[in-house]
TrEMBL record:
Originating gene: LOC120253132
GO terms for biological process, alphabetical: signal transduction
Organism expressing this protein natively: Dioscorea cayennensis subsp. rotundata
Record's keyword terms, sorted: SH2 domain
Protein name per Swiss-Prot or TrEMBL: SH2 domain-containing protein A-like isoform X2
GO molecular function, one term: DNA-binding transcription factor activity
Length: 706
């Protein structure tokens, strides 16, 4: 798609559609083709009229032309001026006794649908999304002595909305010669839709089984940042490179009404940060560039202060005219305070000590979730990751994970030290969260010095807990500070403790590659920039490719032009690459190159026939490659790719995603989290992860042959 501004004026409401067939550019002698995109709102109900035939030039009467049946299937009717069995001019709902053609499947709501009709005196064809779904011969029904000029006597009009059963929007409505290609109209310049990136990691969001997100908010000293990524896609699922300003607001989940300030002088319910200052999110729009925009938000309004109602974040464009397809809503949100009682925290310490001391039957991390009354932050920190990874990712909280000395009384010295440190903090803070917030940063030094008095580890517990609780960006800042002064052993101990408290062993790998990632990134930028602030992307790309091939141990396969374009999108740059852009790109690329250097993936990456691993492609490009003109490829067809939304130090950066066609004839995405801690990874591990999906079980024969 082009880089021009998205033209909202190209869209209109269905009720405003008036289409006169008497057009000089169209020869109606042999009939005509009608093509358009339509978006049905969520309030649309079955048995709704879409387009009606209206008589012109002094003749009265109207009849249905397109409608939704009682089963929500699309129906098309003959023209009343050409055919004997055309719909009568009076209301004849529910239209089941009329001559018609109908689709076999329901028409989807809240999604763009392409409709095409070819109408002649002899036949009528109906197309949905470029596919022929119905046809009917009308020659026996043709009126005697009809004149082709009769087509000029009618017009097509959209549902006026008076019945309140249908609200729709149309785009690119065209009357074309009957010989025109419906597929060409379908593929060319499709409409756009705003969405929230479903693969975007929500490190700061805890998702319950009912799909409700829990986000820590409230007063400034407690609330935490969370990030959401908005994408602009066309109706074919492709990223749209058009600039558009989008703003975020907080609404109630049940009715979509704006959440108001709690009182005079109160903060806005949804905040964003700019240059270190918190501003109402509605006053700080974000520009979509290269098809996406990232919002970093905080919620000041607690659900408990709003009658325990749930919220949603609503993203919409800044245009005066609001359209539902240019709006996107998050999952329902419960905004909670992060204060916890001292009693609950002490329960957690007892469970932690029990887990450390039990050598014979160490409880898994899930044991901390057994007591519903024990509300602990470490409970579901990376739930967005654990949902899509094998159970092997969860580690046991035994002595193997955190070495400690056993004292004469049979207790763990390590646990004693941790208990004493945590208890001091609990007594000082009276049960509140131990992690200092942004607004409390001035007290961090004093807090850490108090903790350090009880610790022989130069990386204090305050830093460890802060790392466990923060998001990806904050973790990267902490890691850069840690590795600048800590020894390799200190970093290794830090990695073990993070794995213990988060219950996610994949953090170990991300922490252990930090020094090399930063070192090689710094060397590469110095080589590329020659100490300049910016460099042309065209000059930087060859050196980035050479560095990638070196790290990935892949002299025979580097980055293609398409791969480099994806990297430029990840960097968020145009023709010039800044240091910040490079660092953003490098934090994504290095874990990928490192993973490809391992023997298991290295061979699959180098293999080009068959091509096991695609290049660096986006989610949208992967889905598009599984589509064919008639729909989707056959069940079990898949593509291996690296998710563009996971960058270091996200626990799954460098992991693979399999995108495949499932048995339900829809596209699925599954994260394949390989165990990088095993230096000699089993060559069959990737195959086993793939074959866990029932639809991909047929691949077993393929793997055994290769």
């Amino acid at each position: 798609m082009g880089d021009d501004e998205c033209r909202v004026e190209d869209y209109s409401e269905l009720k405003d559609l008036r289409l006169v067939l008497d057009q000089e550019a169209i020869n109606l002698e042999n009939g005509f083709a009608l093509c358009f995109w339509i978006y049905f709102s969520g309030s649309t109900r079955p048995s709704s009229l879409i387009l009606r035939q209206v008589m012109c030039f002094g003749r009265e009467g109207e009849a249905p032309f397109l409608a939704l049946s009682e089963e929500n299937k699309l129906m098309a009717f003959p023209l009343m001026v050409l055919h004997k069995e055309g719909p009568p001019t009076e209301n004849s709902f529910p239209w089941t006794d009329l001559v018609q053609i109908s689709s076999e499947t329901e028409c989807p709501l809240q999604k763009w649908v392409h409709i095409g009709c070819k109408i002649t005196a002899d036949y009528m064809h109906l197309y949905i999304d470029g596919n022929l779904v119905g046809e009917k011969l009308l020659y026996p029904l043709m009126k005697d002595g009809h004149d082709q000029d009769d087509l000029k006597k009618i017009s097509l009009s959209g549902n006026d909305g008076n019945d309140e059963k249908l609200q729709g929007y149309v785009y690119n409505v065209q009357v074309l010669p009957v010989s025109s290609s419906i597929v060409d109209h379908f593929m060319k310049n499709p409409p756009v839709k705003l969405s929230i990136d479903g693969m975007c990691p929500h490190d700061e969001v805890e998702e319950a089984r009912d799909g409700v997100w829990s986000i820590v908010g409230g007063k400034a000293s407690c609330r935490r940042n969370f990030s959401l990524e908005v994408v602009l896609l066309d109706a074919l699922g492709r990223s749209v490179h058009k600039e558009m300003e989008v703003v975020a607001s907080l609404v109630y989940s049940d009715n979509g009404e704006l959440v108001e300030r709690s009182g005079d002088g109160a903060e806005a319910p949804l905040l964003t940060s700019f240059d270190g200052t918190e501003l109402p999110s509605t006053e700080r729009p974000v520009m979509i560039r290269h098809g996406r925009a990232t919002f970093k938000l905080k919620i000041s309004q607690l659900s408990s202060k709003s009658d325990n109602r749930l919220f949603r974040v609503c993203f919409h464009t800044t245009h005066i005219q609001r359209y539902p397809f240019l709006e996107a809503f998050s999952q329902p949100i419960r905004c909670i305070s992060r204060n916890r009682s001292k009693c609950s925290s002490e329960k957690f310490l007892k469970k932690l000590a029990s887990a450390q001391l039990d050598e014979t039957d160490s409880p898994t991390y899930n044991s901390f979730e057994a007591d519903e009354n024990c509300e602990v932050y470490f409970q579901n920190l990376d739930q967005s990751e654990s949902k899509c990874i094998p159970s092997s990712k969860r580690i046991k909280a035994g002595q193997d994970n955190l070495p400690s000395m056993i004292c004469g009384d049979g207790t763990s010295e390590g646990v004693k030290q941790r208990n004493s440190r945590i208890e001091v903090q609990l007594q000082n803070d009276d049960g509140s969260d131990v992690t200092p917030s942004d607004s409390e940063s001035t007290d961090t030094g004093n807090s850490e010095s108090r903790w350090a008095e009880h610790s022989t580890n130069p990386i204090t517990d305050a830093v460890i807990f802060k790392y466990c609780l923060e998001g990806t960006e904050e973790r990267s800042i902490l890691l850069k500070g840690i590795i600048s002064s800590a020894s390799n052993q200190d970093v290794a101990n830090f990695a073990e403790q993070v794995c213990l408290y988060t219950g996610c062993s994949h953090h170990r790998h991300q922490i252990m590659i930090s020094k090399e990632l930063i070192l090689q990134g710094s060397e590469t930028w110095t080589l590329i920039s020659k100490k300049n602030g910016c460099v042309f992307w065209s000059d930087a790309a060859p050196e980035i490719n050479r560095k990638f091939m070196s790290i990935a141990r892949s002299p025979s396969r580097g980055l293609s032009t398409q791969d480099l374009e994806v990297l430029r999108e990840i960097a968020g740059c145009g023709n010039e690459l800044s240091k910040d852009d490079f660092e953003k790109m490098w934090c994504w690329l290095y874990p990928v190159a490192w993973a490809l250097s391992k023997d298991q993936l290295n061979g699959m990456w180098k293999c080009m026939s068959p091509k096991w691993i695609e290049g660096l492609i986006t989610r949208e490009e992967a889905e598009d490659s599984l589509r064919v003109p008639s729909g989707l490829q056959k069940t079990g067809m898949f593509i291996l790719r690296f998710p563009t939304s996971r960058s270091w130090p996200h626990s799954d950066s460098g992991s693979l995603v399999v995108t495949y066609v499932g048995a339900d004839y829809s596209i699925h995405h599954r994260l394949l989290s390989l165990d990088h801690s095993n230096r000699e990874m089993d060559s069959g591990l990737l195959q086993e992860l793939l074959l866990q999906e029932q639809e991909l079980s047929q691949l077993g024969r393929v793997f055994r042959r290769n």
